[in-house]
Amino acid sequence: MTKTGNRYLRYYLIEAANSVKNHIPEYKEYYYKKFGEITCHQHKRALAFTARKLVWLIFSLLTKNQIYFLKNDPIDTYIILNNDSFYLILDKDNIYLFNKTSNALTFYGEKP
């Protein structure tokens, strides 16, 4: 990441990378790998590299219109969208729509 561009966006991407590093094992490994390779300002530079990797992930997910799932995640069901009238629920293979007003669970389709 360079210092050109919006400094506030850079700040929040670094903060997001720090959070991702703490919660996703793949990014934690990447952070500590970069931390070990760098000799000066290790934490800040390793976070900048992790933020760059996160930006590429976000960009690829947005261009491919996909949802990110953890590898080997023990949780197999996600509630993605919680609206006033319905939930969008993802499990390992399918997508369901739950209507709160009628308490009906509808099969929406298979995951791409």
Q: How would you sum up this structure, described in words?
A:
This protein has 112 residues and is of the alpha+beta class. It folds into two domains: 7-64, no CATH class; 78-110, no CATH class. The chain is 47% helix and 21% strand. The protein has helices spanning 7-23, 25-37, 42-64, and strands at 78-82, 86-90, 94-99, 104-110. A hairpin with a 4-residue loop joins strand 3 and strand 4. The longest helix is centred in the middle third of the chain and has 23 residues, at 42-64. The model has no long low-confidence stretch (mean pLDDT 81).
Task: Please name the defining characteristics of this protein.
112 residues; alpha+beta; 4-stranded antiparallel sheet
Largest sheet: 4 strands, antiparallel
Written as H for each helix and E for each strand, in order along the chain, the element string is HHHEEEE
Decide which structural class fits the backbone.
alpha+beta
The percent range for strand residues is: 15-25%
User: In the residues, how many domains can be counted?
Assistant: 2
Strand neighbour order, sheet with most strands? 1-2-3-4
What is the global morphology?
elongated
In DSSP terms (H or I, runs of 4 or more residues), the helix count works out at 3
